[in-house]
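Following up on my earlier thread - several people asked me to post the actual chain instead of describing it. Fair enough. Here it is, all 451 residues.
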Amino acid sequence: MRHALLTLGLALSSIPTAGFAQEHERPPNVIIVFTDDQGYGDLSCYGNPTIHTPHLDALAAGGTKLTQFYVAAPVCSPSRAALLTGCYPKRVTMHKHVIFPQFDYGLHTDEVTLADLLQDEGYATGMFGKWHLGHRPGLLPLDQGFQRWSGVPYSNDMAQLHRAKENKYKYRLPYVEDREVVEWEPDQRLLTRRATEAAVAFIDDHKEEPFFVYVPHSMPHIPLYASTEFEGSSPRGLYGDVIEEIDWSVGQLVATLERNGLRENTIVLFTTDNGPWLPFKLAGGSAGPLRGGKGTNFEGGQRVPAILSWPGHVPAGHVERTLTTAMDVFPTLASLCGASLPEVVLDGQDVSDLWLGRGPGPAPKPFLYYTSDGELAGVRRGPWKLLLEQGELYHVERDISEAYDVATQHPELVLELRELAASLDLAITEGMRPTRTVEELFFDPTKPGAQ
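Reply from S.P.:
Thanks for posting it. Predicted structure:
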């Protein structure tokens, strides 16, 4: 492996939850399903009355539903960087909006991703779906700890087919197997199914060893597509069809675990990269009771649905109301899988005690909000959330819809939170680590099929 994981000290091995893998012959498998632009209110177990998600509902009933789970950015590339590194996007310099096809940078390969972390512990690592952390050679999933990848390198709207009316949009959507483009402008009706089938095959192939399977679906990012088996099946329309096919996908993964006798030894996390794309109306999702959506720093942009399951370990039928973030996933899985953390600054914290129902876990850190362009936008400490530009203050546990600005009633708290946000952001800025730039083109837009 190109990464030499340096330990934080022998003390880490004495943490009770970190010793789980040492107490068993085989550490737990890990599956993360990460959808794109799905709203807080888009699952029946989160209150949607028309979208039917029986497999995810069952996952929540047999596990834990997280009701204050936040992603680190309201758009996808920064959010994905945070999930896979345990860091704010700004710390790894992945905070400046999303990576478009013409860009030549991506997540630096010196960063230790979840795939790097677990591969160094002997895990088979596979990714099936959308990457969007750099698409030039040297910046792809196989350069970031994954041993197998099939899917697309960026969003499904970054394609000629979708943007044909935009004066011959010159970039195309490639479908990649490991490092080879096997198809240009793939049939998007099959993207969810192809990712699912590839993930199932990977589990079957690696059932005798621990594995990490990452399934970042391209949907429900627009343009929306569902396979013929699901198109027209939901009263919510095409958006509902897409979500119900994703629910089917989760059901297929769980069934594969059960068929191989691996269900009780597999951690499954289902969540999404940011809130729904509201300007697209019925082509976008719902944030339920939350204000705003994708691209905003209101709760609907960054508080997302999250379901955690690990039979016999994660409490069944539990609703966890504590604030946790996607950045916590990295150190928590390191603890549960017996992996040593890299000797770098992380922004997430180990919440394994919380996941396992052993107690409240550590007090949540203050949480910073950044805009879709990477500017500091706000801070949350405890129940209080301050939006800096607007000067609005909300108690987001009593007022989840952010309907009642109480800044004028708490001027001293507003000042205190402003100072806190500035100091935390300064520390992150001073500790920023670089991205990597690669000039070689991943694909040639003049090849046959470009027009």
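Residues 27-364 form a domain with the Alkaline Phosphatase, subunit A fold (CATH 3.40.720.10). That should answer part of your original question.
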